[in-house]
Amino acid sequence: MKSSGSLLDIHKYSKDAFRHLYYKLSDSDFNRSYITKDDPIASVTGIIWDITQGDEEVKKIVKKMDNIDGIKAQNSKSPNEKRVETWLKKAYFEHLYGGYSISRSYLLSFMISIIKPSGEEGKKKLKYSTTRYFEQYNDKFKKRLKRCRTNERVLELQKQYPKLNIIDAYAYGLIIDKFNTTNEDLDWFEKIIKILTKKKEI
User: Fold this and answer.
1) 185 burial via Cβ count (<10 Å: 0-12, 13-18, 19+)
2) What is the signed CA dihedral for 48, 51, 16, 93, rounded to 10 degrees?
3) Positive or negative torsion for Cα 159, 160, 161, 167
4) Each residue of 82-104: pLDDT tens digit?
5) Which among 64, 62, 72 is positioned nearest to 137, based on CA atoms?
């Protein structure tokens, strides 16, 4: 069976997302035989089992956690949604690196060239879905960009390395889901900077 990832690869959920999970699992309406104060290990094992087995009630809880953190499970995305997300990630690189504008019309032209919809009705539907996904992901990426540019730790790193574009580089890491604004991720990023700025011995 093809693996889709490990529990070790799980998204680093925010405190707000885990707070939602706690409230839902503590709710008296959430009835599971493994939820017991006497055996916390059974409780943890049980919830992990339900998540990995796709239990519908638990899936709703996790989807809300995803919504809180502005993410979405890859296997729940349509092919066109994935195309728009990938296109925008590339477009944000060009925006941050070369200063190019992010254009919805360019995205639509790209989608038409890939999908090749038949007739005006097909183009209309494609334009609608593309615009919806564009607004969804562009808004999410803008928020990540803003969060990075106001993060005190990131700003401190920028002051330490004034010749490097630390802020935009870290922001792009957030956009492509490689980093988060956690102390651990920022520590790793700073180590990468130290390696990059160290003069290579010949």
Assistant:
1) middle
2) 110
3) negative
4) 999 999 999 999 999 999 999 99
5) 72
Burial 150-174 (b: 16+ CB within 10 A, else e): ebebbeebbeeeeeeebbbbbbbbb
Residue 121 half-sphere exposure toward CB, CA atoms < 13 A: 0
- In the three-class reduction of DSSP (H, G, I as helix; E, B as strand; rest coil), residue 68 is classed as helix
Instruction: Quote the distance between the C-alpha of residue 182 and its chain's center.
Output: 14
Distance, CA of 200 to CA of 87 (rounded, Å): 35
Q: Which residues contact 69 (CB under 8 A, 6 or more apart)?
A: 11, 13, 14, 16, 17
129 within 8 A of 82, measured Cβ to Cβ: no
Indicate the pTM of the whole model.
0.65
pLDDT per residue as tens digits for the range 60-71 = 888 888 888 877
Residues in the chain: 202
